[in-house]
Amino acid sequence: MKGAVPTVLLATGLIVGGGAAWLATSHHSASRSPVPAEHFMPPPDSAIPKTPFGDEVRRGEHIFREPAIYASAFVGNQLRCSNCHLSAGRLAGASPMWGAYVAYPAYRSKNGHVNSFEERLQGCFRFSMNGKAPKLGDPTLVSLESYAFFLAHGAPTGVDLPGRGFPKLPKPPVAADYQRGAQVYAENCASCHGRDGLGQSSGGRVVFPALWGAQSFNWGAGMGSIKNAAEFIRANMPLGLGGSLSVQQAWDVATYMDSQVRPQDPRFTGDVAATRKKFHNNANSMYGLTVNGGVLGDPAMTPPAGTIPVAASSAAPAPVQSE
């Protein structure tokens, strides 16, 4: 979304547990930002050691920033991890990786068992990247876990750190509305993500991600939840202007965004109604509901899940230069 202004983080210099961890203060453009004023601050890239482990961390950051280049065998769209985990997984209130890493292992109702952090990463490839999950222990997962471990250096484990995930959002004053959301989108989002929601590219490189369509996240992704999308939007969008939209506007535009055609849920049972009942039977999912005359998730109008290009599926990952 429009208005790219960098977020400034100021370290207060508080050392935690003898490690290199700091509290930081976020200065957002809007005083109404729901992001906590003080939160954990990860170490800078300059602190990555010049060791084999440091090489793994750097490779993880490269994958995080450009998964279609460095993990192409597992990516089925044009998104980047950093499209939702802003500032390469560092930004509080944008599901930072330092907050996620210390929260695992954890039970997830999505798959009904305790997940390791690696297993959580698998889900990102399968759903958010509309690709396929690397096997546990795959070098891609090892690199990403190393990067997250580095970002969380000094953070306490098993603690719900301020700034983790997306800030909780109250219910809207009135029920969220598709048509109002379309207006919010046109006024605040279309200049970057396109009027058609398919993102924008420059010089062959995607600069603003697709919010729906074949190159966006699929119906199984967390951002397909209206609640999750509204929380992310309210805290972080338009880019650099987090908090500038009202609670109502965030819910309305999230409803509009999540009422569009996108790739199929990879858990699709072969029947839309049965898939909704099993995986989407809640007020935050539009899957299986009729919008503008079409049933969302209907195979006749829904791009397939897990669309890995043939060339990418057999390609070796791009090398990362040691520093």
UniProtKB/TrEMBL annotation:
The keyword Oxidoreductase does not apply. InterPro entries: Cyt_c-like_dom (IPR009056), Cyt_c-like_dom_sf (IPR036909), Cytochrome_c-type_DH (IPR051459). Pfam families: Cytochrome_CBB3, SoxA-TsdA_cyt-c. It comes from Lichenicoccus roseus. GO terms for molecular function: electron transfer activity; heme binding; metal ion binding. Residues 55-152, 176-261 form the Cytochrome c domain. Keywords: Heme, Iron, Metal-binding. This is C-type cytochrome.
